[in-house]
Amino acid sequence: MNRLHISNIGRIGGITSEGVRMRNEVHISEWSTIEDAWIQVEGQYVVEWGSMAEEPILPPNTEIWDAHGAWVIPAFVDPHTHLVHSGTREQEWTARLKGATYQEIAASGGGIMQSVRNVRAADVSSLLDESRIRLETIRSMGVGSLEIKSGYGLDFDTESKMMRVTQALAAEYPEMNILSTCLALHATPPEYAGDADAYVKRVTQEWIPIWVGEGLIDFVDIFCEQGYFGLDHLDMLLDCANRLGLGVRVHVNQFSVMGAVKRAVDGGALSVDHLEEFEGPDLEALKKGATFPVLLPGCSFFLGIPYAPGRLLADAGLPVVVGSDYNPGSSPGLNPFLTLSLSCLKLGLMPEEALNAMTLNAAASLNISDRTGSVGIGKEASMLFISGLREWSTLPYHFGQVPPMRVMLKGRFI
Ligand SMILES: [Zn+2]
């Protein structure tokens, strides 16, 4: 297999030695680097690196690329997206600019239900075409791995359609790691109006086992919130997931605190996502458990709601994760560098902490940190080569600006 030798790298950041799978094993602020380095890639993997002062003599015919002083970070990992959807929702955004709240828009038939109507009406190929454009956009900005949720179908056929689109994207873009989360429990569909219990029962007892059998699901998720789903529904999903061996991710504490963080942690959930509303017992529960807190500052920015307490969670030694929550209603932005800036400016993380939260910890929350999320020997060669950096803080400092860079995913430049 051909080996690619990359010389003259100014600095490599986000390095891990074997076995380190998330950044509270050392500390979230630990961002290991080497300067004036070379690195070698064989096939999909990083195989060796070292200092330019000790650059090896290369066998003839070795492929060489001169990085001209560019700095390297691991490709971003986005652990929370609603990337597959049809159409956009600018109209409700302008209604919000005039003063309507997210809840008022939902009550008048907008919000999630607007996207449900759009996705139900879309055929597979148009849904795939729309989603592919977003995926290529996010990939060009350095995201190498991402999770994609269903949840705009809320009936068996449309949820299946969404998950098949995610499956098709994963097959089409093998250089990325694309994981599928079933969010059929995003809202109660009109067909079950007033009977959320019956809907949750149908989803957990009948639909999810079928989708697992078809290989369409890596994780399951539920929107725990006043007016959506409650603690009993969360329990039903946790039972179902434990029976089927699925990881659980939970939308929780976005608008209200209802005790679902503790319930999710006690039930062995993999992640609790959002946490904009946060109280002492939530912190105590997270400290005792092994559930990842996933923070979504883009959603707070776009909705104008409070930000999750990133600094508090990091100081408590928790493996803080940051994702985009990309979706057409509450976070319609794909740019990971803006998320990085918001993580510093609004969640209170230092640049190196925010980078860890968007790479290694995000990968750990998706159970893929053994192969991606950091620069390590034997790990996938998914890295960004960035020019013009003076400090790591240069990245979030130019907020939302995508720096000049080349993106390598699984050993190949895209
Ligand atoms: Zn979400």
Largest sheet: 8 strands, mixed
Ligands: zinc ion
Quaternary organisation of the protein chains = single chain
| Share of helical residues | 25-40%
Q: CATH class of the largest domain, please?
A: Alpha Beta
Strand residue content: 15-25%
Based on helices, strands and strand pairing, what is the structural class? alpha/beta
Number of strands: 16
Q: What secondary-structure arrangement, pairings included, does this model have?
A:
Elements lengths: L2 E11 L19 E10 L2 E7 L11 E4 L4 E4 L1 E3 L11 H8 L4 H6 L4 H10 L2 H17 L2 E7 L6 H17 L4 E9 L10 H18 L5 E5 L7 H14 L2 E6 L7 H7 L4 E4 L5 H9 L3 E4 L1 H7 L6 H6 L5 E2 L13 H10 L5 H8 L1 H6 L17 E4 L7 H4 L7 E5 L2 E2 L1
Parallel strand pairs: 1-4, 1-5, 6-7, 7-8, 8-9, 9-10, 10-11, 11-12, 12-13
Antiparallel strand pairs: 1-2, 2-3, 5-14, 14-15, 15-16
Model description:
By secondary structure, this protein is α/β, with parallel strands linked by helices. It has 2 domains: 3-75 and 372-413, Urease, subunit C, domain 1 (Roll); 76-365, TIM Barrel (Alpha-Beta Barrel), CATH 3.20.20. It is 36% helix and 21% strand. It contains 15 helices and 16 strands. It has helices at residues 90-97, 102-107, 112-121, 124-140, 156-172, 196-213, 231-244, 260-266, 280-288, 297-303, 310-315, 336-345, 351-358, 360-365, 394-397; strands at residues 3-13, 33-42, 45-51, 63-66, 71-74, 76-78, 143-149, 177-185, 219-223, 247-252, 271-274, 292-295, 321-322, 383-386, 405-409, 412-413. Strands 1, 2, 3, 4, 5, 14, 15 and 16 form an 8-stranded mixed sheet that branches. The protein has an 8-stranded parallel sheet with strand order 6-7-8-9-10-11-12-13. Helix 5 links the parallel strand 7 (143-149) and strand 8 (177-185). Helix 8 (260-266) runs parallel beside helix 9. The longest helix has 18 residues, at 196-213. The mean pLDDT is 95. It binds zinc ion. Zinc ion binds at residues 80, 82, 251, 325, 327.
